[in-house]
UniProtKB/TrEMBL annotation:
<keyword id="KW-0812">Transmembrane</keyword>
<keyword id="KW-0472">Membrane</keyword>
<feature type="transmembrane region" description="Helical">
    <location>
        <begin position="103"/>
        <end position="127"/>
    </location>
</feature>
<keyword id="KW-0482">Metalloprotease</keyword>
<comment type="similarity">
    <text>Belongs to the peptidase M50B family.</text>
</comment>
<feature type="transmembrane region" description="Helical">
    <location>
        <begin position="369"/>
        <end position="389"/>
    </location>
</feature>
<dbReference type="GO" id="GO:0008237">
    <property type="term" value="F:metallopeptidase activity"/>
</dbReference>
<keyword id="KW-0645">Protease</keyword>
<feature type="domain" description="Peptidase M50">
    <location>
        <begin position="10"/>
        <end position="430"/>
    </location>
</feature>
<protein>
    <recommendedName>
        <fullName>Zinc metalloprotease</fullName>
        <ecNumber>3.4.24.-</ecNumber>
    </recommendedName>
</protein>
<dbReference type="InterPro" id="IPR008915">
    <property type="entry name" value="Peptidase_M50"/>
</dbReference>
<keyword id="KW-1133">Transmembrane helix</keyword>
<feature type="transmembrane region" description="Helical">
    <location>
        <begin position="420"/>
        <end position="441"/>
    </location>
</feature>
<keyword id="KW-0479">Metal-binding</keyword>
<dbReference type="Pfam" id="PF02163">
    <property type="entry name" value="Peptidase_M50"/>
</dbReference>
<dbReference type="InterPro" id="IPR004387">
    <property type="entry name" value="Pept_M50_Zn"/>
</dbReference>
<keyword id="KW-0862">Zinc</keyword>
Length: 448
């Protein structure tokens, strides 16, 4: 059921993005009286699932869910149908239109993608507000794992700046650190600035959750107990663990680490209850767990900010730019030879796996619409950026050739356009095969 919901969300999100992106090309093309031969959701090599011709345009749904397309008459596109281009240009063809009109048609898709993200982020800010974890409210220093220490952090460090800028939002702080060049911390009462080590970043990317290297610290106050044996041993909700086997415990992560390292053993645990020390003996499972949790106290560090309708418009734009900025910055990790971020790049199968769902206590799964729309907005910005990359076969490639024509005053030779388009299509097909191959390899090697 969970997999079915994730697949449904993926198809729904992609469908929304593709249809609106292609409408961004379709509408200005029709406005400038350019013939549009096809409008397709998904690709249709050899056959389509559904198709119907209305007027001069064939509308359909293909069977290959990689995107979609509009086929505009007189344009060198991914179909590589050049027969029509051997004839004299007709008034309704793309190639017969002024360069500025062609530029608007080609930029229409990415423009719609960006405005869609802007609208979605604005609506989320207006209707839901924004909940953030304010690191300023946490008095204790962060918990730095071996990954964080590999980047250059030391126990007790308090993060002041990342690349010269303050960041109080915990969700963004971990990503900022991964993308950073240098960190400024308060260490032993002094400000210390150090470069972030790429080897530590590489360790983070090898983890299932690359951002888990940085977590807030809080007292080991127990607020949930799931294991009956732990309850029978005398532990109660509200107890604060202060020592294990005579060793002082200040924070919950210290208690967690001790428990993980004591699988199958009994632990002598001291807790504070009603102001007095209570000694207990707790049996750790073979998996290194006690069946308890401590997370509710973190709610006091969360803050929800609400926005008026007018404020949400500006906030939607800012969030779109932030999303785009983060995604562009991640490129340097993907191509970094030490970090090897490309190993985390996945295709449709990886996206489906990571689609957000809402899991209830009874085990049922449903769509978390807030997370769904957040994902769709983020993906919309990402598609806008990818399509603007100046590669033949993408919108950015067409835009570059059109700008060249506008600057030089004469069009790029038809043969050059055809050859460039062929190279671009081969490159994109190869990239798609590589990404899909990476997904399949991870499944085969159980690393998915």
């Amino acid at each position: 059921m969970e997999l079915a919901i994730k697949i449904f969300q993926f198809i729904l999100s992609i469908s929304i993005l593709v249809i609106l992106h292609e409408l961004g090309h379709f509408l200005p093309a029709k406005y400038f009286k350019t013939k549009v031969e096809k409008f397709y959701l998904f690709f249709d090599p050899y056959f389509s699932i559904v198709k119907k011709k209305i007027g001069e345009t064939e509308y359909g749904i293909g069977w290959l869910p990689f995107g979609g397309y509009v086929k505009i008459a007189g344009m060198v596109d991914e179909s590589m149908d050049t027969e029509q281009l051997k004839q004299p240009a007709q008034p309704w063809e793309f190639r017969a239109k002024p360069a500025w009109q062609r530029l608007i048609i080609m930029l229409g898709g990415v423009t719609v993608n960006f405005f869609l993200a802007w609208i979605i982020y604005g609506c989320l800010s207006f209707f839901n507000g924004e909940t953030t974890f304010d690191t300023v409210k946490v008095d204790a220093p962060m918990n730095y794992t071996s990954v964080a220490k590999g980047m250059g952090f030391q126990d007790g460090d308090k993060i002041l700046k990342v690349d010269g800028k303050t960041q109080n939002n915990l969700d963004k702080l971990a990503l900022d650190v991964l993308l950073s060049d240098e960190i400024t911390v308060l260490r032993n009462g002094k400000e210390v600035t150090f470069p972030t080590n790429d080897e530590g970043k590489a360790m983070a990317f090898r983890d299932e959750n690359p951002r888990a290297f940085l977590t807030p610290r809080f007292p080991a106050v127990i607020d949930s107990i799931y294991n009956p044996k732990t309850l029978q041993a005398g532990l109660k909700v509200g107890d604060q663990v202060v020592a294990v086997d005579g060793k002082k415990i200040s924070y919950y992560d210290e208690f967690q680490e001790t428990v993980r390292n004591s699988a199958g053993k009994d632990l002598k645990v001291d807790v504070i209850r009603d102001g007095a020390i209570q000694p207990l003996v707790l049996s750790v499972s073979k998996e290194g767990t006690l069946g308890l949790a401590s997370y509710k106290q973190l709610t006091k560090f969360y803050e929800t900010k609400h926005f008026t309708f007018g404020e949400s418009i500006g906030r939607g734009f800012t969030r779109s730019i932030e999303s785009l900025t983060y995604q562009v910055k991640q490129f340097k990790l993907i191509f970094n030879s030490k970090v090897q971020g490309y190993k985390k790049v996945g295709g449709p199968l990886a996206i489906i796996k990571n689609m957000p769902v809402d899991k209830a206590k009874d085990g049922s799964v449903s769509i978390d619409w807030t997370l769904f729309w957040s994902f769709t907005a983020m993906f919309s910005v990402w598609l806008a950026f990818l399509n603007l990359i100046p590669i033949p076969g993408l919108d950015g490639g067409h835009v570059i050739f059109t700008l060249y024509e506008m600057i030089v005053g004469k069009p790029v030779p038809q043969k050059v356009l055809e050859n460039a388009q062929m190279v671009g299509v081969i490159f994109l097909l190869g990239l798609m095969l590589l990404i899909f191959g990476a997904d399949i390899f991870k499944i085969i090697t159980n690393k998915f």
